[in-house]
Amino acid sequence: MNLFYIQSAVDGVNKVKSYLKDHYVGIPWSALGDLEQVAMDSIVEQLERRYSLIGGELNDAVETVHTFVNLMEDSDYVVMKDEDWMYVGDLGDYYYDDSIGTSDDLICHRRGVTWLGRVPLEEINEHMQKLLSEPKFIAQFMLPVTQAKLEQALRGTEGAAGTALTETTELAAINTLTGNIPARVEQTTINAALEVLKCALQSENEQLRVQAAAAILQYAKC
Questions:
Q1: How many other CB atoms sit within 10 Å of the CB of residue 35?
Q2: Domains in the chain, number
Q3: Does 153 map to a domain?
Q4: Helix crossing, 167-178 with 187-200: angle to 10°?
Q5: Which terminus of the chain is less hemmed in, N or C, by CB atoms within 10 Å?
Q6: How far are the Cα atoms of 60, 69, 171, 202 from residue 163, in angstroms, in the given order?
Q7: CA-angle at 38, arms to 34 and 39, nearest 5°
Q8: Is the same domain home to 120 and 53?
C-alpha cells in the first residue's frame, strides 16, 4: 500500500469541492483519450503533438500520467489540500470519463476515491508537511505509510469545524453498505466505509447517526 499527494488545482482552478462531492481525483490532458492500455511511447507522442509540450514540461507530464495510470493502485491512499485542510482518501481504479466532453477545463482522467476524512494542516506531522510542499502534480510518500500517522490524525480531529468526515462521505458510506454491494468492490473499501460509519455515529446530525447505525446493523446481518 502506497500514499500519494495530488495537487487539487488544475490549470489554476481549485477542484477540491468537485473532488469531494463526486468522489474522485484527476489529472489534465483530457484530449489524450482513455490511457488504460496505451503504451508510454504513444502518450509521449500525443503530449508533444496535442499539447505542444517539450523539455521539462513534457517530462513532468509524462511522469504525472505514468504515476496516475500505472503506479497508483486500488486501495492506495491519496491526500490533497486546500488552504486549511488535508483530505485523506482511499483510491480506486483508473477510469476515463468523457461523457460531457474533453475540453481542457474538464477532468476526464480519474480515479475514484472513498474520502475518509480531513485534518487541519497545522496538525499533520513533519513528514506530511514535506509531502504537501512538493511542487510535482503527483508526489509519492517515500517513507512507510505508517510514518504519515494518518489514522492517528483522523481520530484526533473533533468538533464541528474539525470533523474528520463530511456529510457527503458519510452518506456515501451508508449507501454502500445499505445497497447491494457489487462484487467489484474490494474488501478494503468496505472496511473503509465501515470506519466512516463508526465515526458518523458521533455526528451532530441526528439523521446521519440513525442512518449510520442502521447501515452497520444491516451489514452485520449479511
A1: 22
A2: 2
A3: no
A4: 120
A5: C
A6: 35, 31, 15, 10
A7: 155
A8: yes
- 97 plus 177 within the same structural domain: no
- 205 is in which domain, residue-wise? 165-222
Per-residue pLDDT of 100-146, as tens digits, reads 898 888 999 999 999 988 999 999 999 999 999 999 999 999 999 99
What are the backbone angles phi and psi of residue 59, rounded to the nearest 5°? -60, -40
For the chain, the three-class secondary structure string (H helix, E strand, C coil) is: CCEEEECCEECCEECHHHHHHHCEEEECCHHHCCCCCCCHHHHHHHHHHHHCCCHHHHHHHHHHHHHHHHHCCCCCEEEEECCCEEEEEEEEEEEECCCCCCCCCCCCEEEEEEEEEEEEHHHCCHHHHHHHCCCCCEEECCCCHHHHCHHHHHHHCCCCCCCCCCHHHHHHHHHHHHCCCCCCCCHHHHHHHHHHHHHHCCCCCHHHHHHHHHHHHHHHHC
Q: Give the pTM.
A: 0.72
Cell 491526500 belongs to: 79
